[in-house]
């Protein structure tokens, strides 16, 4: 028979501090750390609601408590999609040793004369304003733990109605994730608007300094392209060379700004996906930081790839600017590198043959590179295209 996961709604798995008996005293337990009912590592001193007493040699089972001896109740609330409700504490709970900001389920102490069920229903109403009539299912998992499943279309929990203002935020999450959150201080699971606000707080404007740093490098590559381009057509027109060199510097300044404009949104989108996953899955700050480090967003490889592509583009633009100023070039054609070993847009660009200087190739580029690591070259065509 397939084992149940700890996150399964029918399993209430907890530490021994929250339960009256030990897994080590259960007939389903298999030493040293296994169970025939529940998957994963199961420790002898833990506890769950599937407990069945055994008199296995060397194990002294704890005596289950009766409902009358319970002084605190807990309620697992699920919506119709099977997601578990997690509440974030606004105030510390000294009895449970939960500081403000920790996540928890609905819970509370019995008042004098209350039964376990009466206390659970009262806490359900006080903390989230749900009544028995809002539930599709209500049952006891143990004498002190209750399960509530909402009817489809049920309204949102109303935590603001709680006169004690115990909680300031709630989320519905996959039970496996929600149970991992319990008792931990994890970042608020923000909606998309909050993620965007977080990203807007990053000083993206500081990247203007990077624009100023990049422009000279692109200018140098473009200027070198001008020199190379003039050499291709064997012209010694000083005025044409001077104008082309000025064009190259203007190109470098403009392209440096465009490059940052292109990179920032791409980087933001990548960060947005990572932050959303971190908030959804309850990552710690260290886990998110590691995920960003492991991603390609700020990697040396990405930086190198962008740098090589942009410098190659600047070189080609220098060629084009020189040919346009020369007055003798009427067209251009794409020549594939002998390193080209697979069909892609470069094949179509070469097949396009000679095109006018102001036209673009089928890939949408006015010259190589058409993609990262492209080693193709652009050739001038003298006379009419």
Essential attributes:
about 375 residues; alpha+beta; Nucleoside Triphosphate Pyrophosphohydrolase; 4 domains; four-stranded mixed beta sheet; three-stranded antiparallel beta sheet; 8 helices; 13 strands
Would you spell out the secondary-structure blueprint of this structure?
Layout: E1 13-15, E2 29-30, E3 34-35, E4 46-48, E5 72-78, E6 84-89, E7 103-104, E8 106-109, H1 116-128, E9 135-140, E10 145-150, E11 167-173, H2 175-181, H3 192-200, H4 208-232, H5 238-281, H6 285-294, H7 300-326, E12 329-335, H8 345-351, E13 377-382
Parallel strand pairs: 5-10
Antiparallel strand pairs: 1-4, 2-3, 5-8, 6-7, 6-11, 9-10, 12-13
What is this structure, in a nutshell?
This protein has helices at residues 116-128, 175-181, 192-200, 208-232, 238-281, 285-294, 300-326, 345-351; strands spanning 13-15, 29-30, 34-35, 46-48, 72-78, 84-89, 103-104, 106-109, 135-140, 145-150, 167-173, 329-335, 377-382. By secondary structure, the chain is an alpha+beta fold.
Query: Strands of the biggest beta sheet: in what spatial order?
Result: 8-5-10-9
Helix coverage percent: 25-40%
Largest sheet: 4 strands, mixed
Average pLDDT value? 75
Please identify the structural class as seen in this structure: alpha+beta
Radius of gyration, rounded?
34 Å
Strand content: 15-25%
Number of helices: 8
Overall domain count: 4
What separation lies between the terminal Cα atoms? Answer: 76 Å
Could you say which overall geometry the principal axes of the C-alpha atoms support? elongated
Strand element count? 13
- What is the ordering of alpha helices and beta strands? EEEEEEEEHEEEHHHHHHEHE
């Amino acid at each position: 028979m397939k084992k149940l996961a700890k996150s399964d709604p029918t399993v209430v798995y907890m530490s021994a501090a929250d339960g009256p008996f030990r897994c080590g005293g259960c007939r389903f337990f298999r030493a040293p750390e296994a169970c025939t009912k529940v998957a994963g590592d199961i420790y002898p001193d833990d506890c769950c609601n599937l407990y069945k007493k055994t008199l296995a040699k060397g194990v002294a089972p704890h005596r289950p408590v009766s409902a009358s001896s319970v002084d605190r109740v807990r309620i697992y609330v699920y919506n119709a999609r099977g997601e578990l409700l997690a509440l974030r504490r606004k105030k510390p709970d000294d009895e449970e040793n939960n500081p403000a900001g920790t996540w928890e389920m609905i819970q509370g102490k019995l008042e004098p004369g209350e039964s376990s069920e009466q206390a659970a229903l009262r806490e359900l109403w006080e903390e989230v304003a749900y009544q028995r009539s809002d539930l599709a299912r209500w049952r006891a998992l143990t004498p002190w733990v209750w399960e509530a499943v909402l009817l489809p279309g049920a309204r949102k929990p109303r935590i603001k109605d709680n006169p004690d203002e115990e909680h300031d935020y709630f989320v519905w999450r996959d039970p496996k994730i929600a149970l991992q959150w319990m008792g931990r201080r994890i970042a608020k699971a923000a909606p998309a608007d909050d993620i965007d606000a977080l990203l807007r707080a990053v000083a993206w404007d500081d990247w203007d300094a990077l624009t100023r740093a990049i422009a000279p490098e692109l200018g140098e590559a473009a200027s070198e392209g001008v020199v190379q381009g003039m050499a291709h057509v064997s012209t010694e027109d000083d005025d044409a060379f001077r104008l082309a060199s000025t064009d190259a510097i203007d190109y470098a300044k403009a392209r440096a700004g465009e490059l940052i404009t292109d990179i920032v949104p791409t980087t933001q989108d990548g960060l947005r996906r990572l932050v959303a996953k971190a908030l959804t899955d309850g990552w710690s700050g260290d886990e998110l930081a590691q995920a960003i480090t492991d991603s390609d967003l700020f990697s040396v490889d990405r930086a190198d790839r962008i740098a090589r592509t942009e410098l190659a583009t600047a070189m080609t633009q220098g060629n084009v600017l020189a040919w346009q100023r020369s007055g003798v070039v009427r067209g251009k054609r794409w020549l594939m590198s002998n390193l080209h070993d697979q069909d892609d847009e470069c094949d179509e660009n070469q097949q396009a043959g000679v095109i006018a200087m102001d036209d673009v190739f089928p890939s949408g580029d006015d010259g190589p590179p058409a993609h990262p690591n492209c080693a193709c070259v652009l050739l001038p065509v003298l006379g009419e295209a």
